[in-house]
Design brief:
Elements: H1 2-24, H2 34-48, E1 51-57, H3 62-71, H4 74-83, E2 84-90, H5 98-103, E3 114-118, E4 124-127, H6 141-150
Parallel strand pairs: 1-2
Antiparallel strand pairs: 1-3, 3-4
Length: 155
């Protein structure tokens, strides 16, 4: 019994820094209007020719934070900065922006983070339909790079 309690204590103490980090650095604006965010991205890409990445997620989601961290790694961050405008769309507890997910063919109930890619005119190029990124913490680095390479604009 004592060893079980010790294990649980250590386990819980290890979780506290993860939770504190996720809560201290929100990546999704919980008060943003997703339609306005997308409209602003479309205005920006009309001139730049970049594609738009819509990332549906929530600040409480550890896999959302894993994806965000991966996207900020220097090599991938450079690829993204050059080719995409990123729009982080808050889904709350799966009770916000569901209509936006439906509009872009992303069933957020299958898991988050969930991604859609639009061209610079707003045409849907890709919509995740099966929760492909919902386990972002386990996805290898090269898979993220391959995804963003595949969907970058053809120039």
């Amino acid at each position: 019994m004592r060893s079980t309690m010790g294990f649980l204590t250590v386990f819980l103490l290890l979780l506290v820094p993860i939770s504190a980090t996720a809560a201290s650095r929100p990546i999704y604006d919980e008060n943003a209007n997703a339609q306005q965010q997308i409209a602003a991205a479309l205005a920006a890409t009309a001139k730049s020719g970049k594609n738009i990445v819509l990332i549906f997620g929530a600040n409480w989601c550890s896999d959302c934070h894993a994806l965000d961290a991966e996207m900020h790694e220097p090599d991938l961050a450079e690829l993204i900065e050059k080719n995409y405008v990123v729009v982080n769309i808050d889904v709350g507890r799966f009770d916000k922006n569901r209509e936006v997910g439906r509009k872009y063919g992303v069933p957020i109930r299958r898991g988050i983070p969930a991604i859609a890619v639009l061209d610079s005119r707003g045409k849907l190029l890709y919509a995740q339909s099966q929760g492909q990124f919902a386990n972002a913490a386990q996805i290898p680095d090269q898979a993220f790079r391959a995804f963003f390479e595949k969907w970058k604009p053809k120039r």
